[in-house]
Amino acid sequence: MELIHQDGGSYTFSMPADDVTVSAVFRLTLPFADVPDDAWYADGVRYVYGRGLMTGTAADTFDPQLTTSRAMVAAILWRSVGSPQASYAIDFADVPLGQWYTEAVRWAARDGIVSGYGNGAFGPGDPITREQLAVMLYRYAQDRGYDLSNGTDSGLTSYTDADNVSPWALQAMEWACGAGLITGTGDGSTLFPQGEATRAQAAALLMRFGQAYPDW
Question: What does the DSSP assignment read for 89-129?
Fold first, then answer.
């Protein structure tokens, strides 16, 4: 059967005379000219865009290689739970009131999902590292009551730079690797834990998180 595209995003088809089973798979068409259909991160972008977790940097661009900031990740996780308002005093001097990320950081700090650098700063515009992203997701999963046991035998030490993972991020990185959320870089042998996470990497990781925890 041939699907005929109609205005408004609808489709029609002619039903054959014989008994048939009709099934359809719909693939979100992205408006971003810089996300090719065959890009390794395209499905991740479809996932986050379709769920309203990430938007483009412009109407027709996603900027997949642009780094993801700490504020962006807080906002993504905040949106995933319906953008709740939190009555909580923000202790970060660099998170002023009235910014697009203020309420997201307020909520995430209240629930223990984010923390600062220990000097009263959060660094909202700082690029988030791969291990920082793992820690935020790990704490988010804890807060949501998800099963985190799949990170106990992660094979983290199989990566040549596993010793570079910061001690405070070790448990989260073990979980992220064990759950298949974070994979190797380059030829697959390195984790690059202090490497800055791009928007493409963040989108792919969030899609894998959704696959690991379907009720997210």
Answer: ----TT--TTSTTHHHHHHHHHTTS----SSS---TTSBPB
β-strand partners of 196: 129
> pTM for the full model?
0.83
What CA–CA distances, in Å, run from 55 to 32, 76, 97, 102, 201? Answer: 10, 10, 23, 18, 15
Angle 90-95-98 from CA coordinates, rounded to 5°: 95
User: What does the alpha-carbon distance between residue 208 and residue 194 come to, in Å, rounded to a whole number?
Assistant: 20
C-alpha 10/C-alpha 7 separation (Å) is 6
Whether 153 contacts 159, CB under 8 Å: no
Query: What's the CA gap between 162 and 65, in Å, rounded?
Result: 24
* Contact yes or no for 133/113 (Cβ under 8 A): no
Tally of CB atoms within 10 A around 63:
15
Per-residue pLDDT of 144-194, as tens digits, reads: 999 998 765 567 888 999 999 999 999 999 999 988 899 888 888 999 999
